[in-house]
Amino acid sequence: MTVRPAGPPAPTSLATPGIAAATSGLTKVYGSGDTRVVALDQVDIAFREGEFTAIMGPSGCGKSTLLHCVAGLDTPTSGSVRIGSTELSTLNDRQLTRLRRDRVGFVFQAFNLLPTLTALENITLPMDIAGRAPDRRWLDRVVSMVGLADRLGHRPAQLSGGQQQRVAVARALAARPAIVFGDEPTGNLDSRSGAEVLGFLRDSVRELGQTVVMVTHDPVAAGYADRVVFLADGRPVDEMARPTPDRVLELMKHLGARAGDGGRPGDGARTGGLV
Ligand code: ADP
Ligand code: MG
Predict the structure, then answer these.
(1) For residue 70, what are the CA distances in angstroms to 36, 107, 177, 229?
(2) Of the candidates 183, 201, 53, 35, which has an alpha carbon nearest to the alpha carbon of residue 111?
(3) Cβ(64) to ligand 1 under 6 A?
């Protein structure tokens, strides 16, 4: 038991147990007047710890904006975003930078590796810049899971696309962040390389307890997740637990047909359009 020194009571933790990140009324508006776009419209969503969530939806529905706002890379117009117990709007620029560095990992479609560094140097680069010593045991597990033991001294140009993206995933995991985001991380890969990257992401969830949120348009990729959230017009309209590619495809057709029908996504009264 810890004994607290006398003084004001410690603030109650705002964290909801088991929730890695959550939004409340998250709204993002770009532009104004004729160019005004509501990219996110009052989004309430939570990502559970140790869960792999896929985000799907038509182009322009707000998937990237959602990821960027939750990761602290973009600022909401209104509403709140919380990573663990930290409400992002309470942070100044410096604190936000630190949060992005220490508590969030991001994998982009482009691998964004530094060409002059080896695979291992790329993985540890963010921590080297931050002057932070890696948690050696964690890093060893991440590196062994990446499956590149004999290529860690290679430069990115000497690696295949799938291997480069696995290095980028390992880099995102290296600092042991609270949550890892991927925006179409397999978008530039052939299906076999994509499967290697998706397998690695799933293993990081299963074996390391990592929390992962990934945008994808590919039902096969979504099949690696524990849960799929479907967005349309800046808000979640449906979700599926334990997805399989076939079930995801079926629901996509259904949602697409409903939207094309002139029906509002999420309008439970419409059930037509199932093929
Ligand atoms: P998705 O990733 O699902 O394709 P985005 O989140 O990129 O969608 O975009 C959602 C909407 O916001 C789109 O209509 C897009 O054109 C708009 N948008 C995104 N970023 C900007 C920006 N920086 N300036 C203006 N509009 C933007
Ligand atoms: Mg996008």
Answers:
(1) 21, 14, 13, 15
(2) 183
(3) yes
Spell out which residues have Cβ within 5 A of ligand 2, the ion. Answer: 64
DSSP string of 31-91? S-GGG-EEEEEEEEEEEETT-EEEEE-STTSSHHHHHHHHTTSS--SEEEEEETTEEGGG-
pLDDT at residue 14 above 80?
no
Cβ of residue 216 lying under 6 Å from some atom of ligand 1: no
Q: What is the mean pLDDT of the chain?
A: 89
> Distance between CA atoms of 222 and 123, rounded to whole angstroms?
25
Point out the ligand 1 atom lying closest to the alpha carbon of residue 67. 6
Q: What pLDDT, in 10s, does the model give residues 226-245? A: 999 999 999 999 999 999 99
CA pair distance 37, 34, nearest whole angstrom: 9
- Domain locations in the chain as residue ranges: 49-72+92-260
pLDDT for 148: 84
**What kind of fold does domain 49-72+92-260 have according to CATH?**
Rossmann fold (3.40.50)
SS3 137: helix
Name the residue type at position 130. Answer: A
Residue 16 pLDDT class (50, 70, 90 cuts): confident
CA dihedral 173, 175, 179, 183 (to 10 degrees): -50
Token pair belonging to 141: 């597990």
Which residues does 253 contact at the CB level (< 8 Å), separation at least 6?
A: 273, 274, 275
In this structure, the chain runs to a length of: 275
Q: How far apart are CA 238 and CA 18, in angstroms?
A: 22
C-beta of residue 222 within 8 angstroms of C-beta of residue 253: no
pLDDT tens for residues 49-95? 999 999 999 999 999 999 999 999 999 999 999 999 999 999 999 99
